[in-house]
User: What shape does this take?
Amino acid sequence: MPAQPGAGKPPGPAGVPRYDARPMAASSAHPPQAAARVLYVLRHAKAGSRASEGSDHERVLEPEGRLDARAVGRALTHIDEVPDRIVCSSAARTLETARLARTAGGWEPEPEAQTRLYGAAGREITAALAELGHGRRVLLVGHEPALSELIALLTGAEVAFPTAAVARVDLAIDGWSSIAPRKGRLVWLLTPAVFAARPRPRRE
Assistant: This one.
């Protein structure tokens, strides 16, 4: 049975750099370099509890989450980081996040929901990405802890980020079929505190 999205993850290995869930924008001192493939990793926006929405798979976004999802779309377009393909898990909250971000950002591609991405671990997501085929700047919308695992696998950096946070990973590959551990570089990590035009409450 696949791991439930959102379950806690064990501490990362010793010596692996950690990127906390603090606001972190791309530094002008380290501008993004050209990459053969770019992967944007977006955690779904804040969703309702399972108790109010039924099954975990069918949980939908809360009003705050919808605002954050739209803010992500506008922010990525504003900094000229527009995806040419969008893939997400089949869960209602990831698909809703992808659709709202797409509309707000004015992006062309329609979100592609993949059942295999729901409950998948980092290595399983990597296998799914290897089968993408087309797309040079792909937005992946998914769940924790799998997204943190994916970034650690691809870049060696341990990340932890809240709902609606998004990271850019540049991949030194000629095609998605060549994706493999340590083939990527974490360029930046943005949280809603950066791109949402309102104060964020502190969460434990």
